[in-house]
């Protein structure tokens, strides 16, 4: 029952404002793709266009190769779950779930019997005869999901369906979607602004910003191999180091780091995910950065702690790394404002701002487990796991 | 995202919503039909007001003239217009605050008492105005209540359901927490009243006042039965003109004199608001930009 | 909660402002809206009195006065004599009037509810043209029924505008003054359909587009959306506005008087004619008619509310 979905250079403008710029997206059968973007990025508009609730200014929506331009919403065989459950207040739970079957002309009794199966799928069979007004938020969304699934959609569209639920409830809903994928294997497009949700639910993530898809790749790719600096930021990457790429190495305040093969030479931003950095127990190496050229050892970076932010079970450690003053003692106090990086001088490359040590540092953020006993100003060594440095040309 | 959808639907869209599909021509034609339904009864009114000679089989007037409008300058008509204005104004000035008080009381009183207040204030809707007047008339006469005061009293009772209802629905959607916010920001109760509650209820107040004014301005039956001919308002003139045949021009001109002032007021109140909502651009508002910036910052 | 709020205000800025008194101001006002007992009830009663007393008094005086007059206990001139003549003597005519009024009210209500629903549907489904129609509908609300009746008279009378433009055949039923009250019903339908439409639009504009989108993605065609979504969603507002229209048209005077035939008479026309009659003996009959129409209005409202409650219970 699952189908291949294709959006071909979809554009959409509201008056003079262009919300989508020739967006293309392919979703293979039974795959789940997340459209990730901030509010206003155009992700919901794209979903509404796919559903047929809105018409594109240009481009085509194809399902299994068939152009849907002339197919109205109700005959597209898709189902859409909205952020609000939008249960019909004049129908009880079971009749809401049976709605699609009733519209298709099924008798009430049969429609209800079928609907019951879907209510069982979302663990709400006991609520069949309840009025929808008596449901909690999570139950409402589960009914909405059952109602959408009961239509046997070729493609299931989810528009931030769990945004209004609390964290625990959201995780049970993720499990539910997992069950549904295992049992029914529908093609799914889920719109979300939550990168964690996108990562949990989807096989691939399409990152939308300002009406353009910046990158469409696996969960791993968009996190560790972001196509642009914006993608990195949208996926929560906290470390962007400006510099230059040449000969497969990125040159910056951090020194020279090997980057991915195929990186273009020229001014580039180095992306190092905070999760890819670890603290190295003090051994007293002298160089502020040792590239891993000698025997596959991960590169290390030396800096001093400038701040800690607790995330609960994990801690973000901010480390000030400075080219002229690698030990960083002069910037030890956390009350000091973090030094700004002068982008122009960095792009120019070469010896960086000799007279001004303040301007030649960079703050790296490291995501570490637990709550490390670190003091502000303490000199520590960072290690880059799996050489996961990724350079993209400066935007 | 929905914030990006402008008030009017964008041009290339096939509107879904209720989405009665069909050829745009048919949709527009049906719309024109509805416009017709609403406007057609007013067409002969307008034509008659400017008609000079309009003989029976002729579709349009044979000659046009503004002579009929001269009646508006006659002292009797002016006095009647003034009476109507005074009647509408007095009814509105009394019924609006009373409606607010009634709505507040219905909200403040617990359960059954609140419902009782609601019920009593809506009760006049169930009473045909002529029945109300007939029963009360003899008592008003015996108490020597002046005709104007008697008409005002009865019309205030007739208008109260409308004003109460306006405030009731405004208070139902009124966000009490705005007042709490103001208090936590250091506003004293009097300032809260003036700077929070009054502005938030101003739209309902305008609507309530307008409706109560209309009750007085357009009343015929109460003025007829209580005033007993002592109180002459525009509808009274109109009623006597319409009751006999051959006064088409007069009826038309007086009708327009009754219709146009409230419609102008309505337009003056409603149009700026409509224009404001239409002018609201779907593009990034400053607030929207801020939200984007903040969500970026938060790493979303 | 209260004390820190008051305390944090910069009273020092004004040495003359007595801080304790303003603290007292705060308490009743804050709790009033919250529905805490005690002071609130008192405040509620104080607020209720100026609005409730005039209404209760006028209606009470009016009903008692009408009853007393209908029984001859409160004659305009002369001694009070208890008599049920006004009720018994004209029961047949009175009954006929009630039937006529009920016929007008039912026909007008059905017509305005149907036309009003269609207008609301069009406004909600068609943004641009709909906006114009909603505006025009709103503009007809301030027009008094007296003027509406005058205008409909100019439109529908024997030599009216409609006759002139369409050249109606002589066999066409008489609308103004006709025994079927065609023009009266047309006038009510014209005015009240705008009212019904505005009530429906107001009650549905927020929910309807989301619900219809959801229904469309579930496979409901446009027609199914109207029948299975819009109509059920609009039912409460439809029922309330129908009830209001029914009660209003049952007891309304102007249109029935200007556009109706001299006989049969609806209750309002009959009551006003008897009330204004030079024969003072007609007064009690006028009062009986007024009371009957009041009673019919109340019965209609109670029946309507009971029906609404039952249909809610059935769901």
Strand order of the largest sheet of chain A: 6-7-8-3-9-10
CATH 2nd-level architecture of chain B: Orthogonal Bundle
What is the end-to-end distance of chain B?
16 Å
Radius of gyration of CA atoms of chain B, rounded to a whole number: 25 Å
Task: Decide which structural class fits the backbone of chain A.
Answer: alpha+beta
- Strand composition percent of chain B: under 5%
Say what the CATH topology of the largest domain in chain A is. Rossmann fold
- Main β-sheet description of chain B: none
Shape call of chain B? globular
CATH class term of chain B = Mainly Alpha
Radius of gyration of chain A: 26 Å
How many β-strands of chain A, per DSSP?
21
Distance between the termini of chain A: 42 Å
Largest interface: B-C, 105 and 115 residues
Q: Tell me the CATH superfamily of the largest domain in chain A.
A: P-loop containing nucleotide triphosphate hydrolases
Question: Overview of this structure, please?
Answer:
- Chain B: This is ABC transmembrane type-1 domain-containing protein.
- Chain B: It is found in: Cell inner membrane; Cell membrane.
- Chain B: Its main location: membrane.
- The complex is a heterotrimer of chains A (395), B (300) and C (315).
- Chain A is of the alpha+beta class and 395 residues long.
- Chain A has two domains: 5-224, P-loop containing nucleotide triphosphate hydrolases (Rossmann fold), CATH 3.40.50.300; 238-393, no CATH class.
- Chain A is 23% helix and 32% strand.
- In chain A, strands 6-7-8-3-9-10 form a six-stranded mixed sheet, with helices on both faces.
- Chain A is elongated and about 75 Å long.
- Helices cover 70% and strands 0% of the residues of chain B.
- In chain B, helix 3 (75-108) crosses helix 6 (147-172).
- Chain B is globular.
- The relative contact order of chain B is 0.12.
- By secondary structure, chain C is mainly α.
- Chain C has two domains: 2-36, no CATH class; 89-314, MetI-like (MetI-like fold).
- Helix content of chain C is 75%, strand content 0%.
- In chain C, helix 3 (39-70) crosses helix 14 (282-314), helix 7 (145-156) packs across helix 9 and helix 9 packs across helix 11.
- The longest helix of chain C has 35 residues, at 91-125.
- At the B-C interface, helix 1, helix 2, helix 3, helix 4 and helix 5 of B face helix 2, helix 3, helix 5, helix 6 and helix 7 of C.
């Amino acid at each position: 029952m699952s189908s291949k979905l294709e959006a071909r250079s979809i554009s959409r403008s509201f008056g003079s404002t262009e919300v989508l710029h020739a967006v293309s997206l392919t979703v293979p059968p039974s795959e789940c793709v997340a459209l990730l973007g901030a509010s206003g990025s155009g992700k919901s508009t794209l979903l509404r266009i796919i559903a047929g609730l809105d018409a594109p200014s240009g481009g085509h929506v194809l399902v299994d190769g068939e152009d849907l331009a002339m197919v109205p919403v109700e005959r597209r065989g898709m189902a859409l779950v909205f952020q609000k459950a939008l249960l019909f207040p004049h129908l009880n739970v079971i009749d809401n779930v049976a709605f699609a079957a009733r519209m298709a002309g099924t008798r009430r009794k049969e429609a209800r019997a079928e609907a019951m199966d879907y209510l069982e799928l979302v663990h709400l069979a006991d609520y069949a005869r309840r009025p929808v007004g008596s449901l909690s938020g999570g139950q409402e969304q589960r009914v909405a999901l059952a109602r959408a699934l009961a239509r046997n959609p070729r493609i299931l569209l989810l528009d931030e369906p769990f945004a209004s639920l609390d964290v625990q409830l959201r995780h049970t809903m993720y499990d539910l979607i997992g069950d549904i994928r295992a049992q029914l294997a529908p093609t799914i497009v889920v719109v979300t602004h939550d990168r964690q949700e996108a990562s949990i639910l989807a096989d691939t993530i399409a990152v939308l910003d300002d009406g353009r898809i910046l990158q469409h790749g696996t969960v791993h790719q968009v996190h560790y191999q972001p196509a642009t600096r914006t993608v990195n930021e949208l996926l929560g990457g906290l470390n962007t180091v400006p510099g230059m790429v040449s000969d497969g190495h990125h040159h910056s305040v951090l020194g020279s780091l090997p980057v991915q093969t195929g990186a273009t030479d020229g001014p580039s931003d180095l992306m190092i995910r905070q999760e890819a950095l670890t603290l190295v127990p003090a051994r007293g190496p002298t160089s502020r950065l040792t590239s891993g050229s000698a025997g596959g050892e991960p590169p290390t970076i030396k800096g001093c702690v400038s701040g800690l932010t607790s995330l609960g079970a994990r801690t973000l450690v901010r480390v000030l790394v400075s080219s002229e003053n690698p030990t960083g003692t002069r910037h030890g106090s956390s009350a000091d404002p973090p030094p700004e990086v002068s982008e122009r001088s960095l792009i120019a490359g070469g010896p960086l701002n000799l007279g001004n040590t303040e301007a030649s540092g960079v703050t790296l953020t490291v995501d570490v487990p637990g709550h490390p006993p670190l003091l502000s100003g303490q000199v520590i060594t960072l290690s880059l796991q799996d050489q996961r440095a990724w350079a993209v040309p400066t935007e | 995202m929905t914030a990006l959808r402008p008030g009017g639907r964008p041009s290339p869209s096939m509107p879904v919503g209720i989405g009665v599909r069909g050829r745009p021509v048919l949709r527009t034609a049906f719309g024109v039909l509805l416009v017709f339904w609403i406007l057609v009864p007013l067409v002969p009114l307008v034509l008659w007001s400017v008609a000079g000679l309009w003989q029976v089989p002729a579709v349009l007037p044979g000659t046009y003239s503004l002579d009929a409008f001269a009646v508006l300058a006659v002292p009797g008509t002016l006095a009647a217009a003034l009476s109507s204005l005074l009647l509408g104004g007095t009814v509105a000035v009394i019924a609006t605050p009373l409606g607010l008080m009634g709505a507040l009381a219905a909200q403040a009183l617990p359960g059954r008492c609140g419902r009782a207040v609601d019920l009593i204030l809506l009760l006049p809707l169930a009473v045909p105005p002529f029945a109300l007047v007939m029963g009360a008339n003899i008592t008003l006469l015996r108490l020597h209540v002046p005709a104007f005061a008697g008409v005002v009293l009865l019309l205030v009772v007739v208008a109260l359901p409308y004003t109460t209802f306006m405030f009731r629905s405004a208070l139902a959607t009124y966000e009490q927490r705005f007042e709490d916010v103001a208090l936590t920001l250091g506003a004293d109760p009097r300032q809260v009243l003036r700077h929070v509650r009054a502005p938030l209820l101003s739209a309902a107040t305008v609507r309530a006042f307008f409706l109560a004014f209309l009750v007085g301005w357009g009343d015929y039956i109460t003025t007829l039965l209580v005033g007993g001919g002592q109180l002459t308002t525009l509808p009274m003139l109109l009623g006597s003109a319409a009751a006999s045949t051959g006064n088409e021009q007069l009826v038309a001109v007086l009708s327009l004199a009754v219709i146009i002032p409230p419609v102008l007021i309505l337009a003056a109140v409603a149009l700026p608001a409509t224009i404001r909502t239409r002018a609201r651009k779907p593009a990034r508002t400053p607030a929207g930009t801020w939200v984007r910036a903040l969500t970026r910052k938060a790493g979303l | 909660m209260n004390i820190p709020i008051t305390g944090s205000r910069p009273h020092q800025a004004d040495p003359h402002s007595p801080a304790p008194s303003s603290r007292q101001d705060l308490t009743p006002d804050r709790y009033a809206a919250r529905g805490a007992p005690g002071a609130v009830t008192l405040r509620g009663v104080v607020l209720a009195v100026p609005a409730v007393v005039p209404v209760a008094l006028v209606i009470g005086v009016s009903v008692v006065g009408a009853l007393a007059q209908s029984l001859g206990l409160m004659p305009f001139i002369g001694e009070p004599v208890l008599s049920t003549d006004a009720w018994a003597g004209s029961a047949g005519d009175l009954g006929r009037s009630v039937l006529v009024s009920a016929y007008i009210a039912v026909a007008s209500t059905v017509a305005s509810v149907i036309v009003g629903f269609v207008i609301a549907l069009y406004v909600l489904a068609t943004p641009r043209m709909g906006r114009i129609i909603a505006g025009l509908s709103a503009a007809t609300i301030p027009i008094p029924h007296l003027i509406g009746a005058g205008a409909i008279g100019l439109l529908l009378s024997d030599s009216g505008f409609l006759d002139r433009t369409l050249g109606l055949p002589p066999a066409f039923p008489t609308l103004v003054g006709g025994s079927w009250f065609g023009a009266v019903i047309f006038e009510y339908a014209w005015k009240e359909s705008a009212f019904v439409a505005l009530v429906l639009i107001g009650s549905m504009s927020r929910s309807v587009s989301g619900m219809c989108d959801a229904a469309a993605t579930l496979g409901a065609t446009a027609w199914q959306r109207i029948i299975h979504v819009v109509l059920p969603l609009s039912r409460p507002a439809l029922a309330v506005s129908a009830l209001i229209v029914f009660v209003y048209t049952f007891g309304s005077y102007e249109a029935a008087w200007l556009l109706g035939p001299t006989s049969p008479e609806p209750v309002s026309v009959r009551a006003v004619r008897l009330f204004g009659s030079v024969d003072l003996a007609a007064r009690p009959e006028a009062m009986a008619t007024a009371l009957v129409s009041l009673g019919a209005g109340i019965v209609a409202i109670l029946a309507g509310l009971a029906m609404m409650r039952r249909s809610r219970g059935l769901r």
